[in-house]
């Protein structure tokens, strides 16, 4: 069809270019396109919001006592088997893709307008919208710190009483086991130990406030990018974004403050 419309081709001319039909060219074109990148940022953002909410709900099991959260952690780490590694790999891919594409879009936007607005105050954008890149970077760095703190146990440890010597010894988080079931990790004591350290508490509180700001704008922005936010649904979507961001903020801060106020107490001796 294309050769018929373009006219006869000289037999000694360059070979006719065949259209790309594979999946790889489409994916690369999608990633390189600003519109495609924005859609992927929105979709990966929705996935990360879903994980954030369920992660916070799981952590709230600390209010049910050591058995509840330790059993929950054991289920995730052991009962799911290979599925947990598939989930971690997918989550890591989504996180890296979201952050990388968002940063690239921001850099492209700045390159397209090398001269800033003469009157920045007149730009119709909220402070949360103008600082999305920076709040995203802070949240990304906090996620890395959070993994180093609780998942890998590189940041801090906890003092416990040695059962044999009766003296205080310093232990890594990952070496703590449930007194009722030594086969299970004592995640409850890890949470309590982490949030009794003042500088860690301050860091987590600040990070949660930044996460709130990022989610507050990011959720409604995702709906707008996906074409779901219009004049009819603008207010409900804004309210939904605020509700989810506030739910995550209050839930995560409740855990920190409960430890600080002594409502969630250590079971270490």
Description:
There is one protein chain. The chain has 269 residues and is mainly α. It is 64% helix and 6% strand. The chain has one domain: 3 helical TM bundles of succinate and fumarate reductases (Up-down Bundle). A two-stranded antiparallel ribbon has the order 1-2. A two-stranded antiparallel ribbon has the order 3-4. β3 (177-178) and β4 (181-185) form a beta hairpin. α2 (23-32) crosses α3 and α7 (132-151) packs across α9 (198-225). The longest helix has 31 residues, at 82-112. It is elongated. It starts with a helix and ends in a 9-residue tail after the last helix.
CATH class category label: Mainly Alpha
SSE class: mainly alpha
Beta-strand content bin: 5-15%
- Overall geometry: elongated
Known CATH architecture: Up-down Bundle
Q: Major sheet: size, sense and barrel closure? A: 2 strands, antiparallel
Q: What string gives the helices and strands in order?
A: HHHHHHHEEEEHHH
Write the layout of secondary structure elements.
Blueprint: H1 2-6, H2 23-32, H3 34-59, H4 66-79, H5 82-112, H6 127-130, H7 132-151, E1 157-161, E2 168-172, E3 177-178, E4 181-185, H8 187-194, H9 198-225, H10 234-260
Antiparallel strand pairs: 1-2, 3-4
């Amino acid at each position: 069809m294309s050769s018929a419309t373009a006219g006869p081709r000289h037999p000694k001319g360059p070979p006719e270019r065949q259209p790309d039909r594979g999946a790889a060219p489409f994916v690369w074109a999608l990633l390189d396109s600003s519109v495609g990148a924005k859609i992927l940022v929105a979709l990966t953002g929705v996935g990360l919001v879903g994980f954030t909410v369920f992660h916070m709900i799981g952590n709230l099991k600390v209010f049910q006592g050591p058995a509840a959260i330790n059993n929950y952690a054991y289920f995730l780490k052991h009962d799911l088997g290979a599925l947990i590694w598939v989930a971690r790999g997918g989550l890591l891919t989504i996180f890296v893709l979201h952050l990388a594409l968002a940063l690239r879009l921001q850099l492209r936007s700045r390159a397209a307008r090398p001269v800033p607005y003469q009157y920045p105050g007149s730009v119709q954008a909220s402070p949360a919208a103008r600082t999305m890149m920076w709040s995203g970077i802070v949240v990304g760095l906090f996620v890395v710190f959070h993994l180093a703190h609780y998942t890998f146990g590189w940041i801090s440890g906890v003092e416990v009483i040695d059962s044999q010597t009766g003296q205080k010894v310093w232990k890594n988080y990952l070496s703590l086991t449930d007194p009722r079931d030594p086969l299970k990790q004592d995640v409850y004591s890890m949470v309590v130990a982490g949030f009794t350290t003042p500088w860690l508490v301050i860091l987590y509180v600040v990070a949660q406030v930044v996460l709130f700001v990022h989610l507050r704008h990011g959720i409604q922005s995702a709906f707008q990018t996906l074409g779901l936010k219009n004049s009819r649904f603008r207010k409900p979507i804004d309210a939904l974004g605020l509700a989810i961001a506030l739910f995550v903020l209050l839930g995560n801060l409740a855990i920190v403050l409960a430890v600080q106020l002594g409502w969630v107490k250590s079971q270490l001796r």
